[in-house]
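Input/output pair, single chain:
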Amino acid sequence: MADDPTMARMRQLTIGAIERRPVVLAEPDPAWADQFDVERRLIAGALAETAVELHHVGSTSVAGLPAKPTLDLVLVVSDPVDEPAYVPALESIGYQLRIREPDWYQHRLLRRPPAEIHLHVFGPACVEVERMLRFRDHLRAHPDDRDAYADEKRRLGARDWPTVQHYADAKTEIITRILERAAAPEA
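Output:
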């Protein structure tokens, strides 16, 4: 594992210890949408005018899709590099800065245990935010792609992965195919 490029990159970017957690998929839970609403209010209260946008993304944001029971949220702030403008406020409600990824859209990841919330922070007009929203919206509108993605998630989730990031990376091929269809004009 020492030569594993994913682990090497994670060691560079992660603040604190890298946790090895098994990939455990849960069946779709309508409560995930309610959990997002609670989290949205909590973050809005902490950040006041600092938050530009907040979105529920990832598998828990798509009805009918199995998921790791971890909510992925995207927070857009005016400048993700200006951590003092938002990190202390998020820390005050239990978030912890876990990843600082300056070479990938200045991405920051904060986590709020024990609720298992992952808050991805980007700047305005970030193509990654647009990609995440396009993927989510396409799966919501196209049950065949949602079901194909669910099947692949279950297949990959049955394997033992060194980290959850390895599992996420293994989904790249199907995500790319679905995003290509999402970008194609409707016939």
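The helical segments are 5-13, 31-47, 87-91, 127-141, 143-157, 164-170, 172-183. The two ends are 46 Å apart (CA to CA).
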